[in-house]
Design goal:
The protein has about 150 residues and is α/β, with parallel strands linked by helices. It has a single domain, classed as Rossmann fold (3-Layer(aba) Sandwich), CATH 3.40.50. It has 6 helices and 5 strands, in the order βαβαβαβααβα. Helix 2 links the parallel strand 2 and strand 3. The longest helix has 15 residues. It is globular and about 35 Å long.
């Protein structure tokens, strides 16, 4: 087994359904020889749910990454994405943070300065913009996988 040198912390919610985002995560994880920890902020009442939209997206994204040779695990974390990074860092050896957001006009995270605020953890932070698909595409991904969408 290859020894990994740490984890790439990927903070996203809707971005987990964007293949372009996931392919960039694969590329970066392979460059760093790193595993991936998908950090999925969600409402407190969803944190203990095993079969909610957040966990479904995380499982599907982890499977997609795994099919491309990148080990990925995931956690549901605080709704505040910056606090979610802190939670993940308590559980994982983070080396770099990737934050996937919606486009500027649509992104509450960008308006809340999440990318800059995440720099407080002292890790390199990369921002990627997700092309969030329509819900019907997400339904197709859940039903048949990313290849069909």
């Amino acid at each position: 087994m290859v020894s990994r040198s740490g984890e790439l912390l990927v903070v996203s919610n809707d971005g987990l359904v964007d293949i372009t985002v996931l392919d960039r995560v694969v590329e970066r994880a392979l460059e760093l020889n790193a595993d991936v920890c998908l950090v999925v902020p969600c409402p407190v009442d969803e944190l203990d749910e095993n079969d909610n939209l957040f966990s479904q997206r995380a499982r599907a994204a982890a499977e997609y990454l795994g099919e491309r040779g990148v080990y990925a695990d995931w956690i549901l974390a605080s709704r505040d994405p910056v606090a979610a990074v802190g939670e993940a860092m308590n559980m994982a050896d983070g080396r770099e943070i990737v934050i996937a957001t919606r486009p500027v006009a649509d992104s509450g995270w960008l308006h809340d300065d999440v990318v800059e605020r995440s720099r407080r953890y002292g890790l390199p932070v990369t921002h990627v913009v997700a092309n969030v698909p329509a819900e019907s595409r997400w339904d197709a991904i859940l039903a048949t996988g990313y290849a069909a969408a």
